[in-house]
UniProtKB/TrEMBL annotation:
<dbReference type="InterPro" id="IPR014748">
    <property type="entry name" value="Enoyl-CoA_hydra_C"/>
</dbReference>
<comment type="similarity">
    <text>Belongs to the enoyl-CoA hydratase/isomerase family.</text>
</comment>
<dbReference type="InterPro" id="IPR018376">
    <property type="entry name" value="Enoyl-CoA_hyd/isom_CS"/>
</dbReference>
<dbReference type="Pfam" id="PF00378">
    <property type="entry name" value="ECH_1"/>
</dbReference>
<keyword id="KW-0456">Lyase</keyword>
<dbReference type="InterPro" id="IPR029045">
    <property type="entry name" value="ClpP/crotonase-like_dom_sf"/>
</dbReference>
<dbReference type="InterPro" id="IPR001753">
    <property type="entry name" value="Enoyl-CoA_hydra/iso"/>
</dbReference>
<protein>
    <submittedName>
        <fullName>Enoyl-CoA hydratase/isomerase family protein</fullName>
    </submittedName>
</protein>
Length: 259
């Protein structure tokens, strides 16, 4: 399937989704629709075991939502767009495959929210980050106020959200917003290295890990432990568990079938 604003490449069990609206790849209703469609298809594709999400060019991963589209919307229209964006970000956050954001450039506003919805983030050393919405008389509406504070804590989140100032990749690494910072020309290759490592691991176990972490983060410790126990049982019941344990005993590399 071809997309108007997305590029899709699948190689060695890794899917790379590129948002292609140069020069800064803004998010509009059509991009949200296509992201929803492609992630639904990738979830159903057993050959895909890890996903990379990036932007075209080196200037921006995603420099926010499409202001031109937003400016022409009334309250009903913006609420509809906001509902779509939140649904897509949650879909990516809860995808059955691990999702790595390859941050090739600026991640601002909605682009920052999109990055936070991914499991892992590899950043260019030249990338910039900000939630500038307050300066426009609005606030983040795609989950930024919630996902950011879970990573950096409420106090730091309020500082970043209230002032809306731009900060660099080194600061993002210091705050644990990104997992690694690399030179510009190594962002995608590093993301692919990480994705290939994840693709070699047992898919069901990874899915259960993601489910346990994501779901457990939204509940109390006792409920989280119950969720973890259920996910542990699901992983333990797979053929991949038998393969993993047998390979360990036999001192060989495991080959996981995904079941």
């Amino acid at each position: 399937m071809t997309y108007e604003y997305l590029l899709l490449d699948i190689e060695e069990n890794v899917a790379t989704v590129t948002i292609n609206r140069p020069p800064v790849n803004p998010l509009n209703t059509q991009v949200f629709k296509e992201l929803s469609e492609v992630f639904a298809k990738l979830d159903d594709n057993d050959e895909v075991r890890a996903v990379i999400l990036t932007g075209s060019g080196e200037k921006a991963f995603v420099a926010g939502a499409d202001i031109n589209e937003m400016a022409g919307l009334d309250l009903v229209g913006i609420n509809k767009m906001n509902k779509v964006s939140r649904a897509v970000f949650s879909q990516i956050e809860n995808a059955t495959k691990p999702v790595i954001a390859a941050l090739n450039g600026m991640a601002l506003g909605g682009g920052f929210e999109l990055a936070l919805a991914c499991d892992l983030r590899i950043s260019s050393e030249k990338a910039k980050f900000a939630f500038p919405e307050v300066g426009l008389g609005i606030i983040p509406g795609g989950g930024g106020t919630q996902r950011l504070q879970k990573i950096v804590g409420q106090g730091v989140a309020k500082e970043l959200l209230y002032f809306g100032e731009m900060f660099d990749a080194a600061k993002a690494l210091e705050l644990h917003i990104v997992n690694e910072v690399v030179p510009v020309d190594e962002v995608l290759s590093t993301a692919k290295e990480w994705a290939k490592k994840l693709a070699s691991k047992p898919p069901v176990a990874l899915q259960m890990l993601k489910l346990a972490v994501n779901t457990g983060s939204n509940t109390d410790i006792e409920s989280g432990l119950i969720i973890e126990s259920a996910c542990f049982g699901n992983a333990f019941s797979t053929e991949d568990r038998k393969e993993g344990l047998n390979a360990f005993v036999e001192k060989r590399k495991p080959v996981y079938a995904g079941r």
